[in-house]
Amino acid sequence: SSQAGDPFITAHFGSETPATKMSRQQILTLTAMASINFSSMICYSILGPFFPNEAKKKGVSQAMIGLIFGIYALCTLVGSLLLGKYIVQIGAKFMIVAGLFVSSGCTVLFGFLDQVSDGTVFVVLCFITRCINAIGFSAAVTSSFAVSAKVFPESIATVLGFMEIFTGLGLILGPPLGGWLYQSFGYEIPFVFTGCLLFATVPLNLWILPNAVPSSQNSFLRLCTRMKILLICFVVFSLSSGLGFLDATLSIFAIEKLNLSAGSVGLLMIGLSLPYGAASPVFGVISDKYPSIRKWMMVIGGMATAVSFCFLGPLPIFHIRSQLWLTVLMLIVVGFSLCMTCIPTFAEMIACAHENGFEEDLSTLGLVSGLFSAVWSAGMFFGPTIGGYITQALNFEWSAGVQGALAFLAVRTNSISSDRSALYSYKDTT
Q1: Which residues form the Major facilitator superfamily (MFS) profile domain (predicted)?
Q2: What is the rounded average pLDDT of the residues 309-324?
């Protein structure tokens, strides 16, 4: 392993550990990371089936609902950049534990906002709670990416693929659980239940996670001057934009156009989450075993994402009526294609950083994970806010088509860049 002798590995995971066998501490760390992904995604995804409609009852417009979803991502963007930069000074373990504590508290508080006045007061409190929640979330996720990459330097895509199983499970269980709890017990209980679930991971991670030993300092500016990094970031942005768009708009479309209940909308969203979680470990293993095909995974997955978004509505130019079976089928395709595209991106960003002289230490991993989380959050802000505005001005069908066009543009740009890089490499060898 290229990390042999690293103080972080030696101090916490033992020296000379075979690549094919994980130590007890590595298994525990993987368990901790999985708990973060699972509980955080449940808290994030429970809003989808019922909150947009609940906010609408309080006089909130579709565009403002999209902004409430989007502000979470915007604050995660800022938090990820700052916390990724200063992960060495703050400490990865402290960031994870403190982030989970803050996020769980804000999730519970969000459950009592239905008792405030309609209109401006409700919207302002939604913004404040979501902003603080997002900062806690960004601290936990940014640190977990960095720790995972540090602990498993030779198989990061495989490990991320494994962890995405739990991300998928959280996304799968969140909407139907939220929809069922909302229909059975009202607005407060879904948030109280999931907030307490997230809080339960605080002592678990406090006990399990090791304290990292950092070394060098690096610069975000230097990292962002690498064209390959920027192009991969564009792909990540397009993926998260599509997911954020669906969070803010799919439930209202399904209720109004497909005549589904809030509970049924939760089940509908499983069509997106289930294939994503199921395919993640497979694509993770493929990405680590055959690094040379990562770019083609991104290209093929991005093209499939673009096509499926265009038929999700579908686009009015196709003159196809909105039907439940078509929506479910396209959500399944989106789940697989997003997984195929997303899994290789983080490993490619780390590899690109190392190729450009960045040290193989926690500082570099903090910068990469912070940038990845920030770009993902930028897409999660763009998707619901712009998508919500277009949906309000036109309709869901055209807005979904815009997301498809964005995915196509991202994959096309990366495809052209890869072709040029291959051409220059061929010229250099000849």
Answers
A1: 29-430
A2: 86
